[in-house]
UniProtKB/TrEMBL annotation:
This is Uncharacterized protein. Its main location: nucleus. InterPro entries: HAT (IPR003107), TPR-like_helical_dom_sf (IPR011990). It comes from the Eukaryota. GO terms for cellular component: nucleus. Gene3D superfamilies: Tetratricopeptide repeat domain. Keywords: mRNA processing, mRNA splicing, Nucleus, Repeat. GO terms for biological process: mRNA processing; RNA splicing. It is found in: Nucleus. The keyword Nucleus applies.
Length: 184
């Protein structure tokens, strides 16, 4: 059925077989990968999550858990996505994290995920600092703006540009008074 591209019939056959017998690691992985290819919408992703849940109950396998964790990373943009990924990784570590020959891949994947989250959060913090600073009338604002333009890999948001221009105008009004204070 798979070779013929009869994925709907193949799904039914797998479903029937899984009701009668525990499936092997290979059959689960093939089935999961086929379903992942076909899942594009959120409702379909939920069905794949349910299938993973069945697979990890049916067969304790580091490869299935690793595939599950990596698949869950694809849903990180959904509400509660990060927590869901962490929960799956934690469950996976409990189930197969001590597997002597295959546990390492799971630990490495979890660390890579956390590092990516950390880097993303750090970048967002720096963006926020630049945007806050550029909304305040400060000397050498132009240099800060240029630094932000050079540092940022994405275009500066319109609201930040608007706030920056407004702060520049406020600075021009204050500048003569500030310079007079420096001269004294």
């Amino acid at each position: 059925l798979r070779q013929e591209g009869e994925l709907v019939k193949l799904r039914r056959a797998r479903q029937k077989m899984s009701e009668l017998f525990p499936l092997t690691e290979e059959i689960w992985l093939d089935w999961l990968k086929d379903e992942i290819k076909m899942a594009s919408e959120i409702s379909e992703r939920e069905k794949v999550y349910e299938l993973f849940e069945r697979a990890v109950k049916d067969y304790i396998c580091p490869e299935i858990w690793l595939e599950y964790a990596q698949y869950s990373i694809g849903g990180i943009g959904q509400e509660g996505g990060i927590e869901k990924v962490r929960s799956i990784f934690e469950r996976a570590l409990t189930a197969v994290g001590l597997h002597v020959t295959k546990g390492t891949a799971l630990w490495e994947a979890y660390r890579e995920f956390e590092n990516a989250i950390l880097e993303t959060a750090q970048l967002e913090k720096i963006h926020t600092l630049f945007r806050r600073q550029l909304g305040i009338p400060l000397l050498d604002m132009e240099a800060s703006y240029a630094e932000y333009e050079e540092w940022s890999e994405e275009p500066i948001p319109e609201t930040t540009i608007k706030n920056y221009k407004k702060a520049l105008q406020q600075l021009e009004k204050c500048k003569p008074y500030e310079e007079a204070l420096v001269m004294k």
